[in-house]
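Researcher: Re-running this chain for the archive, since the previous output was lost when a drive failed. Same request as before.
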Amino acid sequence: MIKKLNPKHLERLLNNCCDIKLYQEGLSEEGEPLTSLNVENQKCRFVEKTKTIITADGKKVELIGKVILLGDIAPNIKKISGGEVIINDSKYEIYLASRPRNPDGSVHHTTLELM
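Model: Regenerated structure tokens:
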């Protein structure tokens, strides 16, 4: 039998605080991205690991690291398409987001890959 993953294992690793701003699709009248979620002082795990990838367009992208947050930070947003994360006074742009699920369908944690 598959059991639900215990979030207590991840809670002890959350040793940083970060500010997260998620954008929705489209632009405002001034040409700025529309903000759909703004979270401050969220407990997270920040893993710095530099990785270079080539996108389907042939563009070279350097990923700086990733942020892991417990649970679903944006349950009302189906697709996290972009945003920014501020950790230790450094601003990073979100490249990719994933939300692994438990066997019962609930979200275990949210991972944001940063560039």
